[in-house]
Design a protein that fits this description.
mainly beta, Chondroitinase Ac, Chain A, domain 3, 15-stranded mixed β-sheet, 12-stranded antiparallel β-sheet, 4 helices, flat, disordered N terminus
């Protein structure tokens, strides 16, 4: 099948040609090393094992490389994958932790993350830089003459620093445009993979107002049965309208039980390919768009990653080849459709999902009789569709009246189940303020319809929200509230943003000391995540990447410091804060600055001397501040 460029497809679509050719949107990348192939960075030449793969689904990003196991310990030598030079080094307690970038002659860059410590010459340089800047967190950039390396040189030792959940080496390959490339495309013999992907479940989700899955406008999940490398259903499913397919699957490697990501998926309807994706080259700045590649609410609620085999409207990742329906497919009444999805890993092991759909009618039908004690109206939003369920005592489902200001619209029932009669309405056509059936009325909390790909300002008496051009993945049905406890709500935590939105809130009860007050995100439980904010009069402005509940809280309690150990060689502390979090620390011994390395996972500060031959002796003063400026001073003697 001939693949057209995105530009050609869009031109053809706008002119009305509509064909079935897929549009390809893969980023161009340098060819692999040929004369100088990449070497494996851990125990080269022997079998290695992975705990993570390229493209694995993480809560807010694609996993951008491979995680190489290090026998459950730290300190294994880390080798440069090729000739080049160390171009960038970073030290942090978060994210990548201790991190090295190596730039190679062909423009590729390899990265080595969560390191325990660097090779001696580089370690000495970075330690001197920390003392020069009087900061634990530092970053340095080098030219090709400062730290040249040859393939196989030891550049560091493996660790568990940063956001790592256990000892391993995170290894990436990037091109000159900062696209994350799949390291396994270079064919490392150290990794053995003869295991095809494992398919757990799939889901069919409505994409049009006439869509049905087994008679209802409902996302339904199904568990296929494995027969060889084919996963299938014994029964033919019934459906109607425009649908999208989602698949929950993992991949595994020989000798490891970790659940890894599936590299590529292809969808065929009646033998015609309508969708492909390959998580083989992902622009670093677009990693967060994993939230539109998957069913994000299902991941948040159930911790299960369903990858969409269709492209949501706000998804701009260049990893897809799609038809004019962006991978969605239409089911017509009376016709039978074979649905085949091929899932493959980096070593071309393939599993197949195969099932049949028979087109059903989307006309009104009775699927059950509601057991009603008293009439009631419920509603939910599915993408841009409003689904209203009415349970009443009528034998025949009545029409529902939707109100938009002074206008009233009659909506006919779509179907009736045991839960009640269901009415469907596309909110893109306008936001109703209420609905009524036979004297029972419900009001909707909709504020505004916010379009994607444009700047948009919404304002009411207690809140202002500014969405940037790239904030939204898709059209947002905005819902806001401020309750009696001064908790501000913007939709819910199941709504995530690609780029931040700016929010200004006006609390009804102002804090006594604004300098100690900031905005916190209230999560699913009792936790509160610091967001900060800037006060301007009686309003505070802050940025958000996830919607949900927010509240202004005051932090006047300084951090806590506990001495763990002290000796002439080293001193260590445990520090923590009750609310806003640790912001800075400064330690001096007899007035001389001492480096304290921060490990957030254990809340510990551990000293490292610049001159290892000089013992620690004298008065020790440690000052720790939280984000709101509360300070604790701890003194001792060595």
């Amino acid at each position: 099948m001939k693949l057209n460029s995105v530009r050609s497809l869009l031109v053809a679509f706008l002119l009305g040609s509509g064909g079935s050719a897929l549009a390809q949107a893969q980023p161009t990348s340098p060819a692999p090393f040929s004369a100088n192939p990449l070497a494996f960075p851990i125990k080269p030449g022997t079998q290695n094992f992975l705990s993570g793969s390229m493209g694995e689904i993480r809560p807010n990003h694609f996993h951008g490389g491979i995680d190489i196991k290090t026998e459950g310990k730290i300190g294994l030598p880390v080798y440069s994958a090729g000739d080049g030079y160390i171009s960038r080094v970073k030290v942090s307690s978060y994210g990548y932790g201790y991190l090295i970038y190596v730039t190679h002659p062909n423009g590729l860059v390899t990265t080595y993350a969560h390191l325990h410590h660097f090779a001696p010459a580089l370690a000495d340089h970075m330690l001197a830089l920390q003392y020069q800047k009087k900061s634990f967190e530092v970053e340095a950039f080098f030219n090709e003459t400062q730290f040249p390396v040859a393939k196989g040189d030891v550049i560091a030792f493996s660790g568990n620093t940063g956001g790592s959940g256990g000892p391993h080496l995170h290894f990436e390959v990037r091109d000159s445009k900062d696209n994350l490339l799949n390291p396994l495309r270079y064919g490392f013999a150290e990794i053995v993979d003869q295991i095809p992907p494992i398919i757990y479940n799939f889901a069919l989700t409505p994409q049009s107002i006439d869509a049905r899955v087994k008679g209802e406008f409902l996302r339904r999940e199904f568990t296929p049965v494995k027969q060889g490398n084919v996963y299938t259903l014994a029964d033919t499913l019934t459906a109607a309208g425009l649908l999208g397919l989602e698949v929950q699957a993992i991949d595994q490697y020989n000798g490891a039980n970790n659940s890894n990501g599936v590299q590529a998926m292809e969808l065929k309807i009646n033998g015609e390919t309508i969708y492909r994706h390959n998580i083989d080259a992902v622009p670093f700045h677009l990693q967060r768009q994993v939230s539109s590649h998957i069913n994000f609410p299902v991941l948040k609620l159930n911790n299960r990653a369903f990858q969409r085999l269709y492209v949501a409207d706000g998804n701009t990742l260049p990893i897809y080849e799609i038809d004019h329906n962006r991978g969605r497919f239409r089911i017509e009444e009376g016709k039978v459709y074979e649905v085949v999805a091929d899932l493959s890993d980096s070593y071309k092991n393939v599993s197949q999902l195969r099932f049949f759909l028979k087109g059903e009618s989307s006309a009104y039908q009775v699927l059950g009789t509601p057991a009603v004690t008293k009439p009631k109206i419920g509603h939910e939003i599915m993408d841009s569709f409003l689904k209203i369920t009415v349970a009443d005592t009528a034998r025949k489902a009545p029409n529902l009246d939707l109100y938009m200001g002074n206008y009233k619209y009659a909506v006919i029932p779509s179907y009736t189940t045991k839960a009640g009669s269901v009415y469907l309405y596309n909110l893109i056509g306008g936001l109703p303020d209420s609905a009524e059936v036979k004297g029972t009325r419900v009001r909707f909390p909709f504020n505004h319809l916010v379009p994607p790909n444009t700047e948009f300002l919404y304002s009411n008496r207690f809140m202002d929200i500014t969405f940037g051009k790239n904030s939204l993945y898709d059209t947002l049905i905005l819902q806001t509230n401020r309750d009696a406890q001064d908790v501000f709500t913007i939709n819910n935590p199941l709504t995530t943003l690609f780029q931040p939105a700016k929010v200004t809130i006006r609390p009804a009860k102002l804090p006594v000391d604004k300098s100690k007050a900031a905005v916190y995100a209230l999560g699913w439980g009792k936790g509160a995540g610091f967001l900060g904010g800037t006060w301007n009069g009686d309003a505070i402005t802050f940025s958000v990447k996830d919607l949900g509940k927010f509240k202004v809280l005051t932090d006047t309690v300084p951090p806590t410091i506990k001495l763990i150990s002290k000796s002439p060689n080293q001193i260590s502390f445990r520090i923590w804060d009750n609310l806003s979090g640790i912001a800075s620390w400064n330690c001096e011994v007899n007035g001389q600055w001492l480096l304290l390395k921060w490990e957030h996972k254990t809340s510990t500060l551990t000293s490292e001397k610049l001159d290892k031959t000089v013992p620690l002796a004298g008065d020790v003063v440690l000052r720790v501040k939280d984000t709101m400026g509360n300070e604790t001073v701890f003194t001792t003697k060595i």
